From TrEMBL:
PANTHER family: BYPASS OF STOP CODON PROTEIN 6, INNER MEMBRANE PROTEIN YBJJ. Keywords: Membrane, Transmembrane, Transmembrane helix. Residues 16-384 form the Major facilitator superfamily (MFS) profile domain. This is MFS transporter. It comes from Deinococcus cellulosilyticus (strain DSM 18568 / NBRC 106333 / KACC 11606 / 5516J-15).
Amino acid sequence: MTSSAQTPILPELKNARFAVSTVFFLLGVLFATWVSRIPAVSHRLQLNEAELGIALLGLAVGALLAFPVAGWATAKYGSKIVTTIGVILMALSLPLIPLAPNMVGLTLMLVLLGVGNGGTDVAMNSQAVDVEKEYQKPIMSSFHALYSVGGIAGSLMGGLMASLQMAPLWHFGLVTLLTLITVFLVAPKLLNVPGTGEHGPVFALPSAKLLGLGVVIFCVAVGEGAMADWSAIYLKDSLSTTDQMATAGYLAFSGAMVLGRVFGDSMRAKLGAVVLVGTGALLSAAGLLLGLIFPYPWAALLGFACVGWGLSSGFPVAFSAAGNVPGVHPSLAMAAIATMGYTGFLLGPPIIGFVAHATTLTWGLGLVVVLSLIAAAFSRNVKMADVKG
């Protein structure tokens, strides 16, 4: 194999990497923009917790509907056009959310947002795999790191807009305008990998190799969802910390995850995909186990950080591996594992809640320890990530 040090990277390829990186960042910003203003939108519509929960399901339904369609469309027409359409759809749907007159209208708008989010997710990861193959070295984690950075940027902007008492409609409209301008500038630079042009199935049952990848990404997704939904509650209710300390739980997790993804590509180049994902999952299990055994805030924060760093390479490496599974179009493979991952996001936190209700939240979060060990056991399935195109 010719290394990137021996083969100069063409300017067109560098531009494509910049464009894909920008799309990942934008998707993080768009999603975080909505999440940061959920309280304001919910308050305007006077929704209770149950009604808001039903509306939020619209986002999941939209994404799950989009995954197979986006995989098929990307295989047929190429990832460039589908990525562009997906991010534009998500951007345009954002300012429609504050216009919803009631819970039903909000649910429908969130279905639309979910379709844009899910479609872009599949297509941009397919585009990222194509760029990574051309680079002939690991760069997938850098894309996912920028998604995380975009999420942080969107959250900070949302907090600022809320403090300025800017209405969500104007806030969302501003983000949409900036996104559309940015897409107009970078979309032409995306790598132009033509689709097959053939009519294939929109959905197909995943192969055994994809199921193995799906197990890894499912376990990782449950861990990420658990940290988002339960870390603050564990610190506040189980360890009796202050509200400020409780918010530090997710910050410890997300900060460690960003760092893990920043260094993930270089570590994957040195260690290989299997070792990186396997040892990371073991770190997640061991760190969280110790954090749950010792009932102190510092131990919990350290455990949450271990989960963030340990699971940080799960998604990017799994997508890289999916793009190299023999006999399966990369976009269809990514649609399959994205569906399994999103299922983990949806099912994990409620299951932890049920376990916590029956026992304690400590035992509920213990599920993440178990699933991290399962991810480590199935880590051999990511070895295709090291295959160079």
